[in-house]
Amino acid sequence: MADESPAAAPAEATPAAVDVKTEDAKKPAKRSKLDLSREKMEQFKKKAEKRGVVYISRVPPFMKPEKVKHLLGQYGDINRIYLVPEDKTHHKKRVAAGGNRKQSYTEGWIEFEDKKVAKQVAKVLNTRQIGGRKRDYYHDDIWNLKYLKGFKWDHLTEKIAYENRIRDQKLRMEIAQAKKENEAYLEKVEQSKKFEKMEERKSGANGGANDRDAQYQQIRRTFQQKAPTSSKQHSSLGSSDTLLEKVFASAHKKRKVGDE
Question: Which of 42, 94, 211, 239 has its CA at 20 to 30 Å from residue 133's CA atom?
Fold first, then answer.
């Protein structure tokens, strides 16, 4: 009867509880998400350090990123490619002149999974023909490649973000300058309208006086003038010296006659 008492039940349950605890202790502890994220970050950093970036200073005309990856991917694994598209104004001018409508690129960056491969590719292919089949459109074009030592893809993204910020800042400054010029122009237009209204009021108040002044200004007085002597008449009179000589000669003769 003592075995069936409720006080004896816990004594039988304790060994089972101990076994469960020992089994839980044998199981490996679960790793936190923070530890996993740290490991992933470290792995990503190691992979990023192994990668190398090659700079292409001149992209062949109308060559797309897929074509670049296909041609250079034969020498090693490529992770990412970024090509800078040409200016939109140049593209519009070319299309307007009847040129090719395809998108063209000016320069670019290629990231290889292994920096050693990237360095070797830039060293071997630089200033060499692209080659391939003779009928290929890019057969005679030349590679312009350079390995960027110590350059990572993060530097490129920072550079692009910085250029975008500078471009946005310039655009905002240009918009603000245009707005100021427009406001100044409108202000001058308003001032000119006010001056015109003031002139109209003045002309309305002094309309009669202004009309009389205008009439007086239009009157022209004419005076009769003698016609100038001609050159023949002037020569017939002679010069002033000859006239004086004649006058003094006649006076001298009269004196002589009087003395006699």
Answer: 94
